């Protein structure tokens, strides 16, 4: 069951969540209180985030929770109550493949100073398990060429080229 504080029911997390993180860490669903545990600062290790107030965070969190297709997984360092890694699975409903579902893996980031602990690998494996549990026939992600070797180690295959078109004035220019 989803609490109002949790983005999704953490019982959906599979065996990876229990066996692959150090004893002083936990892997779980994003919680509303993670704003104060440095979730936005963790994301800033990946890309430009912009100025996200606690109210903006809460409104977006509630929108994602209502949609029911967002699965943001975090790893928290319990000793310092800080988010040290995160990744997102967005489940897209399709008409193709017998009205199948596709999992989009997004925003995979490990905070500076936390690399080398296999958090990225663990998050990718967890999102693949979540994709299976939510009925996805495949999981896909976009990455830079520099990151291809890492994702291949996680069991993903290079299947093509990503294309993008940004809206005029879009936030990517922050």
TrEMBL record:
Record SUPFAM superfamilies: Acyl-CoA N-acyltransferases (Nat)
Residue stretches making up the N-acetyltransferase domain: 30-174
EC number per UniProt: 2.3.1.4
InterPro entries cross-referenced by the UniProt entry: Acyl_CoA_acyltransferase, GNAT_dom, GNPNAT1-like
Tree of life domain: Eukaryota
GO biological process, one term: UDP-N-acetylglucosamine biosynthetic process
Alphabetical list of Pfam families matching this protein: Acetyltransf_1 (PF00583)
Catalytic EC class: transferase
Keywords assigned by UniProt, alphabetized: Acyltransferase, Endoplasmic reticulum, Membrane, Transferase
Reaction equations catalysed: D-glucosamine 6-phosphate + acetyl-CoA = N-acetyl-D-glucosamine 6-phosphate + CoA + H(+)
Protein family according to the UniProt entry: Belongs to the acetyltransferase family. GNA1 subfamily.
Protein name: Glucosamine 6-phosphate N-acetyltransferase
Species annotation: Coemansia thaxteri
Encoding gene per record: GNA1
């Amino acid at each position: 069951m989803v609490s109002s504080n949790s983005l999704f029911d953490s019982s959906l997390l599979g065996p990876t969540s229990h066996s692959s993180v150090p004893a002083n860490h936990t892997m779980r669903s994003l919680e509303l209180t993670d704003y104060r545990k440095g979730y936005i600062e963790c994301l800033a290790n990946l890309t430009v985030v912009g100025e996200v107030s606690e109210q903006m965070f809460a409104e977006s969190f509630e929108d994602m929770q209502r949609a029911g297709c967002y699965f943001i997984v975090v790893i928290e360092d319990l000793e310092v109550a800080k988010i040290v890694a995160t990744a997102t699975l967005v489940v897209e409903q399709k008409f193709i493949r017998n009205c199948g579902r596709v999992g989009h893996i997004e925003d995979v980031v490990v905070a500076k100073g936390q690399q080398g602990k296999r958090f990225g690998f663990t998050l990718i494996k967890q999102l693949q398990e979540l994709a299976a549990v939510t009925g996805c026939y495949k999981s896909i992600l976009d990455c830079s060429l520099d990151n291809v070797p890492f994702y291949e180690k996680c069991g993903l295959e290079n299947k093509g080229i990503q294309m993008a078109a940004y809206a005029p004035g879009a936030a990517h220019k922050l």
